[in-house]
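Structure (tokenized):
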């Protein structure tokens, strides 16, 4: 097995990502690795149609990123405690693209993320960020189910 020196944990503040966070943090502690945690504010949260074309309202973007930073801080406090030594950030974009981009730019060895475990029609209609990251990632991805 290749040495794992850096783990990226992608979270969306769901119950599933809390479980993935705990799993990734435990794995990081056991392997004594650096842990990077990201939350992605999706494009749809700040892209507003103008003249039929989506554009980004910079004020709305900054407001959403600020809210997400506060929520991330609270989420990490609740799920990791205050003694955790982690590198965290909030980014904006399409989650699948951004998770893989950060993984590549940060030179991570493993991505950890939760999966909602949807099947059938729900899966077809909503898709899965975890599944898409898995299919496009250049590094191993650990998908942590909620059960």
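Design, position by position:
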């Amino acid at each position: 097995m290749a040495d794992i020196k850096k783990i990226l944990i992608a979270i969306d503040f769901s119950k599933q990502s809390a479980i993935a966070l705990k799993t990734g943090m435990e794995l990081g502690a056991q392997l004594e690795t650096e842990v990077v945690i990201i939350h992605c504010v999706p494009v749809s949260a700040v892209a507003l149609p103008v003249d039929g074309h989506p554009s980004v309202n910079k004020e709305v973007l900054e407001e959403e990123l600020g809210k997400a930073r506060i929520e991330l801080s609270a989420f990490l406090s609740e799920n990791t405690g205050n003694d955790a030594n982690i590198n965290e950030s909030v980014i904006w974009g399409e989650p699948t693209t951004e998770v893989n981009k950060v993984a590549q730019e940060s030179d991570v060895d493993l991505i950890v993320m939760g999966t909602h475990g949807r099947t059938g029609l729900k899966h077809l209609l909503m898709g899965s960020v975890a599944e898409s990251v898995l299919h496009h990632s250049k590094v191993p991805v650990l998908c942590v189910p909620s059960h």
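Reviewer-requested clarification: Residues 117 and 145 are 7 Å apart (CA to CA). The first strand starts at residue 6 and ends at 11.
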